[in-house]
Amino acid sequence: MRSLLTLFALSISFPSIAQQIVFLGNLQDAGAPQFNCDKSCCLVERPNEFVASIGVYSGEEAFLFDATPDFTHQASFLQKQSKTKLSGIFLTHAHMGHYTGLMHIGREASNEQSIPVYAMPRMADFLETNGPWDQLVELKNIEVKRLSGTENLKTISVTPIQVPHRDEYSETVGYLIKGTKKTAFYLPDIDKWNVWKQSIIELIQSIDYAIIDGTFLAEGELERPMSEIPHPFISETIALLDSLPKAEKNKVWFTHFNHTNPVRDKNHPTRLKLEKEGYHFAEFAQEISLN
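Given the sequence above, the corresponding C-alpha cells read:
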C-alpha cells in the first residue's frame, strides 16, 4: 500500500486551476424505485436521485466516472457545471449500473465521435467483443483506452486499484484521483473489507477523500440472504473506522445506496448520528475541491 501511494504521490504536478469533484448520483445499479418493489422505499420517486457516479472537472477537462443508466442527466449536468465538453469516461466494472449508459452515445442516440473510455483489460475486451458495445467501437463512437497504470491527463492523474468483487465479465477497480493538491479515492463497489489485500484504514489516512461503498446499512435489510451480494455494510465500515479521529472520519463519503437503505432519508436517525461523528452521505450536485 505504501509503495503504491508513494508512486502515486510522485506523479506529475499540475498547474494551479480550480478542480472539483461533483456527485452525480448515489444509488445502487438499479436505482429507485425498483421494478416490482411495493415497499415504502419505492412508493415515491425522488427528484435528482440517480445511480452512483462522480464527475471530475476543471476549466480544461471534464471526466465522468462510470456510465450509468442515468448517463444523459449526469453527463449533461457535468458539462453544464464544467462549461466544457465531456473529455472521457472511466469505468469501474461491468455491472449494469456502471457501463450501460454508454448506449446513450451510440448511433441510436447522440452518435458521439471517439469519446475516450478508460477501462481495465478484461473490461476493454468485454466492450470490444460483445454486442451491442462492439458497435460503439466499430463506429468510433468510443475509443477504448486500456489502463495498465496511472493515466496522466491535463489537470489530474488517475490510478486504478483492483478490488475483490463479483467479476463475472470484468475486473473491478476503484480510482485514486490526484488533483493539484488533494487526492480522492472513488470505490462504489467492493466485497467485504476483510477480503481486500489493502487496508482501507491506511488508505483513508493517506488521502483527502474516500468515496466508498455504502450499499447497505446493516444485516437484515433484504429478505434474501445478503451473503449472495456481499458489500461492506455501513455499520461494518464505521465499526472498522471507530478508532480514527473525527478528522479522518470526515474524509469518508458513502455512496451507492440500495433502494432499501434507510440512509437515503436525510432525516433518518442513524444518518444524522453518523453525520455528527463526521461521516458524509453523497447527494446529487454536491461538490468537493481537489485544490
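The radius of gyration is 18 Å. Try to locate this feature in the C-alpha cell string yourself.
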